[in-house]
Amino acid sequence: MTPDQTTRTSKFLSLVLRHQPDAAHVTLDPSGWVDVANLLEGCAKGGCPISRDDLNHVVATNVKKRFEFNADQTRIRASQGHSVEVDLAYTPESPPELLYHGTATRFLNSIREKGLLKMQRHHVHLSAETQVTQEVGARHGRPALLTILGGQMHREGHVFFRSTNGVWLVEHVPPQYIQFA
Ligand code: HQG
User: Fold this and answer.
1) Whose C-alpha lies nearest to ligand 1, atom 13?
2) β pairing state of 160-162 and 67-69
3) How far is it, in rounded angstroms, from Cα 52 to Cα 104?
4) Long-range contacts of 138-142 (CB under 8 A, 24+ apart)
5) Positions in the chain short of pLDDT 70
6) Which of 41, 43, 69, 88 is paired with 54 by a 20 to 30 Å CA distance?
7) Residue 39, class by beta-carbon neighbours within 10 Å (0-12 exposed, 13-18 middle, 19+ buried)?
């Protein structure tokens, strides 16, 4: 696959497995899984044919590890980032003391007032590293990096989950836990 084909396939899979399963004529089970054979058949019908080898390639090489197979590789799901209703069945975990969130400067006033909201997704997405967060923010405008007091939030009762691909997930980050420096 060329890098362009890989990106195109990854974007289509994100659309189907996170937002719009209809686009490939499939439905997700309650935990977000779909049968691989059905998915490939549906992708072809939906105008984006994907071979099993190409699917394996995309899952294995995706930089953010967006997709995962089950143990026997007969089913696939997105590890996070859904807008459709799914229960990924992650168990609560204790986060690192500091977490990071990349956003755009134009959102800062609203974030100071309301904290971080989950918007269209099921959770606010946080990272344990600063590297990716810069890019994440740049998708929305001039990037701004926020530091989140994850440890303190956790001690004060906020529940955190970590997705299979290492994204930290939480319902809401109230403004008092955000460092804007
Ligand atoms: C902002 C990528 C105004 C928030 C990344 C963000 C991530 C507010 C935007 C994943 C706000 C939502 C998620 C408030 C939050 N007022 N704006 N009170 N609270 N926002 O795309 O975190 O490529 O839904 O800062 O790696 O940017 O999808 O969330 O700028 O993990 O795999 O509202 O997406 O992964 O944007 O990105 P998004 P995000 P994937």
Assistant:
1) 125
2) unpaired
3) 38
4) 138/102, 138/104, 140/103, 140/104, 140/106, 140/107, 141/104, 141/105, 141/106, 141/107, 142/104, 142/105, 142/106
5) none
6) 88
7) buried
Q: What distance in Å separates the CA atoms of residue 14 and residue 20, rounded to the nearest whole number?
A: 9
Domain map of the chain by residue range? 3-78, 99-180
Distance of CA 170 from the midpoint of ligand 1 (Å): 12
What pLDDT is recorded for position 112? Answer: 98
Q: Which two tokens stand for residue 173?
A: 């980050």
- Amino acid present at 174: P
What CATH number belongs to 3-78?
1.10.10.970
The verdict on the CB of residue 119 being under 6 Å from ligand 1 is yes
Residues 99-180, CATH architecture:
Alpha-Beta Barrel (3.20)
Distance CA(19)–CA(16), nearest Å, equals 6
